[in-house]
User: What shape does this take?
Amino acid sequence: MRIIFWLVLILVLHYSTTAYSTPSLTNCQTNCQTNCQTNQQQAAEAQALAEHLTAWNKAYYQQGISLVSDAIYDQTLQRFTQLQPCFPSIQLTAITGKPSSSVQHPIVQTGLNKVRTSQAVEDWLAARSHQELWVQPKADGVAVSLVYRNGKLIQAISRGNGELGQDWTEKVKSLPNIPQQINTNLAQVILQGELVWRLENHIQAQQDSQGARSQIAGFMQRQQTNPEEAKQVEMYVWDWPNSGLSMQAQLNQLVSWGFVRCQGLTQPVKSLNDVQRWQNHWYTQPLFMATDGVVIRQQQRPNAEDWQAKPPSWAIGWKHPAQQAVTRVSKIIYTVGRTGRITPLLELEPLELDQRTISRTSLGSLKTLKQMDVQPGDLVTIKLAGLTIPQLEEVLVKSQPREALNHPPETAFHFLSCLQAEAIDESPYPKGCEQQFIARLSWLSSNHALNMQGVGEATWQLLLKEGVLKDLTNWLALTPEQLEKLPSIGEKRSRLLVMNFRQAATQPLEMWLKALGMPPSGSDPLFNGEEAIHWQILANRSLEDWQGRKGLGAKRAQDLQAFFNDPTIQQQANYLEKMQVIGFSNH
Assistant: This one.
C-alpha cells in the first residue's frame, strides 16, 4: 500500500532516495538559504507538487480512491521531499478529523519499506540468512483487518492510518467470497489481508492493473452496491499476526477455513534467485488479482501487540518493473520523415521503465505538442503504451515562466520538398531538410522499394557528407574508383556498393516509382493493356484520369498529378531514362 498520509511529514525529513535529483536540486539541498529560496522555478515546482500530493491524499484517505499509481505517487513524493527543506513554508495540507465510524485495529497494520533494486533485496536477505523467509505477491487492492470471535466474523476495518480505520463490517458481511464463520476453538482470530477485485487470468506484465484498485476502493465506499459486483470481491489474507504458528501451518489453517485464495501464494525463499523466480512467475503468469510487486517476510517477528503503525524491519516490498514514471523534459527536438511529416521528440532525464532505460519519447505530431503545451523543464509522467512504447501521459508540473517556443510550421516540409542535396542549404530549416533527404534515400534502398542489401542510412549520410550525392538518382553513375577515395570505403566495399547500384538499375518501373516517393495510386493497375509502360504516360494523365481510378479520392489524385509533374521529379525521371534504367521504355 501507498505510504500513509500521517507519515508524510516524517518522510519529508527522513526520505533519502535521490534517484531523480538534478544538479540544481543538489545545490539546493547543500545550500538552501542561498540557492533555493531565491529560485522561483523551484519554489513553484515545490508548491505544485504539494498541491498534487494533497489532492491525491484526500481522495485516497477520505474517499478510498486512488487517482494515480503507486509509482507516480512515490516518485512525486520523492521529488517533493528533495525540494521541501529548501522551502519550509510549503507544506502538505493535513487531513483533519477522523474518518467517519473510525475504529481501532486490534493489531496495527504496519505498512512496508520499499526497496528499488535487486542489490537492496540481496542485502536485506543476507542480513537475515539465519531466518526463515517467505515471499508473497503484493496485492493491488485495499487492505483490511478481519476480526473473528468464537469463529464468527464480528468486525472488518479498513487500513486507514494503520491504527484507526473505517468500520467496513456491514459491507464485508455482504461479500459472498469472504467466510462469515470459521471452524475454530480460538476465542479470537485476527487476519490481515487485501480486498481485491477479481480479474480473470490476469497477467500483470501484459495487462497492467486495469484500474483494479480503484474498482475495489470505489465499491467499498459506495452506500448501495450490486450483489453481482459483490461476487467480484475476493479476500487475499497475507498475515495472521497472532497465530503463533509456523507459516506453513498458518497457510494450511487459512485454506481449511475457506480462504482458498491464499493457496500457493506464500513461498519459502533463501536467496535473491528464489525471490526473482517467484516475482517473475507472479508477474508473467495468470492470477486472479492485480499485483504491484512482492513482499518478503521473516518468520520470526516481535509480538503482534508490540507492532507500530510504521514500516517494520522484518518485511520489505519490492515493486514490479515500473510501467509509469515521473521525469523532466530536457529538450524538444524535431525530426522530418521522407513525406515531410514533422515529429517532435522529447529528450528526457533518463528513467527506467520495465527494466529499460528511456531517454526519449515521440509526441507523434506538432498538434499534440501544442495541445499538451510541453516545454523543456516540465515534469511529466511517462507510461509504456501497450506495455512496450514510451508515451507522454500528462504534464504534471509546468516550468515557469512559460516561453513561446519557435516550432517549425507544419507547412515547412511536404511530400515534394528536399528532393535534392542543394535544397538543404536553401531551406530555412536545413537540419530538417537533410533529415527528409536522407529518409527518402533510406526508403529508396529498403526492402519496401529497391531492396539494396547493405545500403542504408549510414551509407547515404557518408555519400552526402563527401559531396558525391546530388539527388535521388545520381549515385547510379558512381564508379568503384570514385568511391574508393572516400573515407571508410575501401576497394572491397566500393565494388559491393556499385554492384548494388547496378542491381537497383534493373528494377521495374513500379519499384522505382515507390523508391522516388510516388503517393499511393489506388487498387487499379497503373497502366492498361494498351499503354506503353513509360513515365511520360503517367505524367500526361489529367486530374480527372487519376480521380477515376478505384480507391483514389480527390486529395490523393492531386498529389499524384503533382508528383509526376514536379520539375525535380521529371528531371530525375529523365536522368533514369538517359541511364537506360530498365522499365522506363518499351525496349
Notes: The radius of gyration is 33 Å. The chain is about 35% helix and 20% strand.
